[in-house]
Amino acid sequence: MRGLTGGGGGGEVSAWLSNKVMGTYWEEKVKQKHVHKLSSIKPSIDNKPPATYPHLQNKRKKMQLQEERLKAIQRENGILLSKLSRIAARKGPEGSGMERAHRALHPGEACSLGSLNGLSRKRELQRIARDNHAILSRIQERQSQKSCYDRQMMDNEWQQTLMYRRLASQHQESPTKDSKKSVVLPPIDVGTN
């Protein structure tokens, strides 16, 4: 006798059953069981999102740094507020009870002391003027002296070199042992500075 699950199709199950109504009932039951198995099947690949851990989501260090930054901003704001309140509490430049030297300047009003870095700027300008004067004196000293480069002398030396080349190219015979022919070259004329 075959098993109750039958083969591939529903007709095989009803073939060994004696009642047609029982066969259709059995086929429906097998179909429902198959649909249930299909719906409850689990995938072989894990495609669920990773687990979330609260200590990684909260980011305590970032929160601590933000709190410290906000405290620093609040402290600076408090300092600025106290300075602004002191400035606002003044009644005016003359009526505040402060001396004239310690009051705030009005727009367009110049400081009585002059520039705060005027002395250092003046010293810097004097140093630059001294350096420029020293450079100018060195340039003038050099212009008064004769240069060690004499163009006429260098041109004469070059002409003499060209003459030596021409003479050397005319006498290109290889010297033999028995003929010791010597070429007499004119002396080099070295000019004086």
From TrEMBL:
Region Disordered: start-end pairs = 168-193
Which InterPro entries did the record assign? CFAP97D1/2, Hmw/CFAP97
Q: Which Pfam families match?
A: Hmw_CFAP97 (PF13879)
Family to which the UniProt record says this protein belongs? Belongs to the CFAP97 family.
Query: What name does this protein carry?
Result: Cilia- and flagella-associated protein 97
Q: What is the lineage of its organism?
A: Eukaryota, Viridiplantae, Chlorophyta, Chloropicophyceae, Chloropicales
